[in-house]
Each structure stands twice: as structure tokens, then as C-alpha cells.
Design a protein that fits this description.
Purple Acid Phosphatase, chain A, domain 2, binds manganese (II) ion, about 30% strand
């Protein structure tokens, strides 16, 4: 069977308050082209479909349009699991309508999907968390584990180590395949690949992790959660990553989806690079003038921009306005000349209030002194406070 593996769409996600919906739509259009050209039979969407628990109407509409579009109106099967960013019940709410398009949306772990026709997919047998899929005279067993929070699993991990419990769940889930057909696992989880058994950090970036050795031996494992494409080849396990750069730290690697040919005897994985519709860039300039010039230069460029500006004094409002005339400038980051920054302890009790305010302001703003307006405002407030005191 020919599978397309994608994850972490984060529909509705914003970058410094700016919408990414246009880029997300471009991605879906490109994905449709890939589905058609590569003759994909089944799409696995491994969680974090939305960015928030309460997605906007715009984000939900994009998801509904996307599953219809990518299923080629029911010719291609799609299986979806919730990630940690998704609201499982809300994601699942559309599942009855989606069924005719060949789309299966999981809400919880261990869910038993109703047997029957889903578009051109035939689910001929169903187990707790697993489905036996038949399509184009090819068969596959797919076990699905949504992001395994305690709420979704309906159990606590106090007595057992998280990774041991997940290992047990996955092994049991895969063992349901009692036919001579390939097994595929889809889940949304942290796999701490470099750690050996028994030394798995329970917490990794706020999420619990499992080790590579906790994964079962199957024909393919479609992982979601990590935004960078990664592989654990000994286990046929892959993170395809997110389709867009969602943070500046993600601009160091290509965005991908995976096309996987799975048969009983072998698994062939092909990486397909996704166009970077609007890259995130960082520029470093010196002084306000250069910052304004750079912003002007980049007016027509299709980039998200972080502008680092080396400064000796704060930018004026007028300079900020001129820089921000370029709507792609997400943030102006001041860099203060370190040499001028004093490392001494400030003894506030030796200063008058105005001096103390200036020192305090500098400490809070990486060495920048308050401009005249701020200082004036402070002195006015001070005066008012004194007046009130004497009243
Ligand atoms: Mn995630």
C-alpha cells in the first residue's frame, strides 16, 4: 500500500500575532498535487492538526476543506489522530460527515472504529485502537495511539514508568494483527532516540518521552510531535515534521512529507521536500538608519523578518513606525553595546529618585536609558504622587 505520512499542521497557528493561513493553504494545494501524482492510497495524519484547543472558524474550515480535497472526494483514505495541541472531541466532531470521504478520525486511545466502508477504504475488522484496512486488494493493519496523556488513556502513571506502560500498550496493540499482513503504527509522542533503555527522561520539554527500544517491531511507524524530520531506522520509525517553519529555530532544515511503500516483505521510504512559502529570516543591522533602510529594502520580499538592531539609545517612535511600515517585520530586537553596560551593583539608596529610576530602567532594558518622554512621564507621576501625599 502506498502511504503519505504528514503531521503537525498546526492550522491557525500564528507567528508573533501574524496569520499563517495563506501558507497553510498553499501547503494543502501542494499536498493534493503530491497525492495525485504519487497515486497515494492512504494518508496518515499524526496529530497536532490544530494549534489550539479552541481553533478559529477559519482554521476549522481549512481542516474540513483539506480532508475533502486530499481525499480526492473519497478516493484516498485518511486516518487522523489527535496530538497534544488538539481538542480530541472537537476534532472528532466532524467524523460522521468525514466518513463518506474515506476519513477516519480518532478521538481517544483504544477506540474501536465501526467496521464498514469509509469512501474507498474497507475496514473489514476492528480491534481496540486498531483497524484492518483493505484497499485496491491490498491489506494493512494500522494501530493508532493518540497523544497518550493521562486523560486520554484514562489512567495515571504513578505506579508504572510512563515509557514501560506505553511499550506495553503498543505491543498489545500490534499483537492484534493475527493475519499475514503488514503492521503500521501511528502515534504522537516524544521518542528520545539517543537514550538507552532504563534511562529515559520522564520529562522532555514538558512532555513525557519513550525510548526507541520501547517501540514495537513493525513495518512502519508514523510519528508526530517533533517538527524536524527524523528517523529511527532500526524500528522503521519516522517523524515527518511540520509542513511550515513555525519558529525561527526551524529555519535550519527542510520541511518534508514521507511517501511510504509498504508490503509484507519490505518498506520503502521516500522523502518529499515541501516548498518554503515564506521563510523566517533574521537580519542584524547597526543603528536606526540602517534598520529603516533594511526594512525598506525588504518591502517586496516574501519573508517573515526578525530585525536585530545594535543601538546605543532607544529607537524613537518615528523610527519604529518607519521600520514597521514593512508588515513582514515581526519584531525589532534591540542589541545593546555590551561594553557600555556596567556590571556593578546599583545602590539605590545612594541615588535620588530620578537617578534610581534611570538605573532601574537600564537594568530592565539591557542597558538602554529611558528616553526623554519616559523620563518626563516618570517625573510627572512622581510629582503627582507627592501632591497626593501632602493632601
Ligand atoms: Mn505535538
Amino acid at each position: 500500500m502506498r502511504i503519505l505520512h504528514t503531521s503537525d499542521w498546526h492550522l491557525g497557528k500564528k507567528l508573533e500575532g501574524q496569520s499563517r493561513i495563506i501558507e497553510q493553504k498553499l501547503f494543502i494545494n501542494d499536498l493534493e498535487k503530491i497525492v495525485r501524482e504519487e497515486e497515494i492510497e492512504l494518508i496518515l495524519l499524526a496529530g497536532d492538526i490544530y494549534d489550539t484547543y479552541n481553533p478559529s472558524a477559519e482554521a476549522e474550515k481549512l481542516f474540513f476543506d483539506s480532508i475533502k480535497q486530499l481525499s480526492l472526494n473519497g478516493k484516498v483514505g485518511i486516518v487522523v489522530i489527535p496530538g497534544n495541541h488538539d481538542n480530541p472531541a472537537r476534532l472528532n466532531a466532524v467524523s460522521h460527515l468525514a466518513k463518506d470521504y474515506g476519513v477516519i478520525i480518532y478521538e481517544t486511545a483504544f477506540q474501536e472504529i465501526e467496521v464498514g466502508k469509509y469512501g474507498s477504504l474497507n475496514i473489514y475488522k476492528s480491534t481496540s485502537g486498531g483497524i484492518f484496512i483493505e484497499k485496491n486488494e491490498k491489506k494493512l493493519y494500522l494501530y493508532n495511539l493518540p497523544f497518550p496523556s493521562e486523560a486520554i488513556l484514562n489512567e495515571t502513571f504513578e505506579d508504572k514508568k510512563f515509557n514501560c506502560r506505553i511499550k506495553e500498550i503498543l505491543e498489545e496493540g500490534i499483537a492484534h494483527n493475527n493475519e499475514e499482513i503488514p503492521s503500521v503504527l501511528m502515534t504522537h509522542i516524544y521518542v528520545a532516540g539517543s537514550m538507552g533503555e532504563g534511562e529515559v527522561a520522564l520529562e522532555l520539554g514538558g512532555s513525557r518521552a519513550i525510548a526507541t527500544s520501547d517501540l514495537p517491531d513493525v513495518n512502519y511507524i508514523a510519528l508526530g510531535h517533533v517538527h524536524k524530520p527524523m528517523s529511527f531506522k532500526s524500528k522503521n520509525a519516522y517523524y515527518c515534521g511540520s509542513p511550515l517553519e513555525y519558529r525561527i529555530t526551524e529555519n535550519k532544515f527542510d520541511k518534508k512529507v514521507f511517501i511510504v511503500d509498504i508490503s509484507q516483505s519490505e518498506t520503502i521510504v521516500k522523502e518529499v521536500a515541501i516548498t518554503n512559502y515564506k521563510p523566517i529570516k533574521e537580519y542584524v543591522v547597526e543603528g536606526a538608519e540602517e534598520a529603516i533602510q533594511k526594512s525598506n529594502e525588504l518591502l517586496e520580499s516574501n519573508e517573515w523578518i526578525y530585525l536585530k538592531v545594535k543601538l546605543n539609545e532607544p529607537l524613537t517612535n518615528s523610527a519604529i513606525r518607519k521600520i514597521k511600515a514593512n508588515k513582514n517585520v515581526l519584531e525589532i530586537i534591540p542589541i545593546i553595546n555590551i561594553e557600555e553596560k556596567e556590571n556593578e551593583v546599583t545602590f539605590y539608596n545612594e541615588l535620588n529618585l530620578e537617578e534610581a529610576f534611570i538605573e532601574f530602567f537600564k537594568e530592565e532594558s539591557e542597558g538602554l536609558a529611558p528616553n526623554d518622554n519616559i523620563l518626563k512621564l516618570f517625573l510627572e507621576l512622581l510629582e503627582e504622587g507627592e501632591k497626593n501625599e501632602t493632601n
